[in-house]
Amino acid sequence: MTTQAAALAHLKVLDLSRVLAGPWATQMLADLGADVIKVERPGAGDDTRSWGPPFLQDADGNDTKEATYFTACNRNKRAITLDIAQPEGQALIRQLAAGSDILVENFKVGGLKHYGLDYESLKTLNPRLIYCSVTGFGQTGPYAERAGYDLMIQAMSGMMSITGHADDQPGGGPMRMGVALIDILTGIYATTAILAAVEARHTTGEGQHIDMALLDVGMAVLANQAAGYLNCGKVPQRQGNTHPSLAPYQTFETLDGSMLLAIGNEGQFARFCSTAGHPEWSKDARFASNTLRVQHREALAALMQPETRQRSTADWIGLLEDKAVPCGAINDLAQAFADPQVQARGLVIKQALAQSYKAPVAINSIALEGADPAAKSPALIPVNTVASPLRLSATPPVLRRPPPRLGEHTDEVLGELGLSAAEVSVLRAQRVV
């Protein structure tokens, strides 16, 4: 069987982004085979390198200085350090951009123009360059120059107003997501836009500027909640784990904890009622349709809750699984990663960092046949990441490198630009790299 090259192996990406949204996009491109060169500040690097605890642990279980946050979105990249505030650093960025297909940055609006590294400046060197800017509020509008952060956007977009329990319930009040979801979704939208621009370039021969804003994404992913407000004028409220348009679609207490029921149609509801020993519920005029069940949600839950408490969560899942009634446990992360389906899908990637960045080692069993991912060595720092969910039959994501150490590939990348070891040493002495 012929093995095809990775889907994006022909693309080179210059990554000037940091923290989460931009790096998430560039990791997606890297997983699909693109050569991503991550540029970081000498001596400090990406902010998330120090965002801990938690930190990676060495083979003896001791904390290192490497924060786990950084590892979530920087796999498969090559890392260099470069001070773009110095003219020599700016010149090197121009050289790299001239040979790149894509540049991703998340500086404040106008921040790179001061260094001559904005889109208008770089497209004169490389008209085919696709230049993606990620900011909090976009390149235009009254808030354009403001810094934007995920939590701020969750609040401003209204996302927090529909997340959490109602004010009159225990623990009621606006609530943020458990992860920086707007950042992550912005990274995914950015990847989509970048690939669309690559496709457009096949026709036009030219690159373009992509303006990605966290606020724009935060508003877009309000989805059905936004559609309801825009078309009906009713402001949605927080309602905990219930659904504004479906019932029963919520958590229920069980004999040993809680479970989630996600019933979305009449057949599922009838099968649940029959399995629960109460077929009369599906014939009750109050519950004859989903719309009626939403209207009488509290009455229906009052009938169901005493019944769901009679069996364990596992028993309910077992009873309903072959009835095609969506029902599941509410896992913590340890339970989620121990789930047999998660394990069967190979969703955990095991790699390792060398203690010295000059000798990177990948110990993933897919990448290195016969290697033992569990092997312990004092020279290695184990690092686990979540696998890409993209499953392409012919050109699947590739695993080439663990998240890089700060400046790990500086000599390698500058050598590819034609700089000698002596020239790199001079730049290092000048703290340009």
UniProtKB/TrEMBL annotation:
| One function term, GO molecular function aspect | CoA-transferase activity
PANTHER family this protein is in?
A: SUCCINATE--HYDROXYMETHYLGLUTARATE COA-TRANSFERASE
Report the protein name in the record: CoA-transferase III family protein
Q: What are the record keywords, sorted? A: Transferase
Transferase in keyword set: yes
Task: Report the Pfam families cross-referenced here.
Answer: CoA_transf_3
Note whether Nucleotide-binding occurs among the keywords: no
Highest taxon, organism lineage: Bacteria
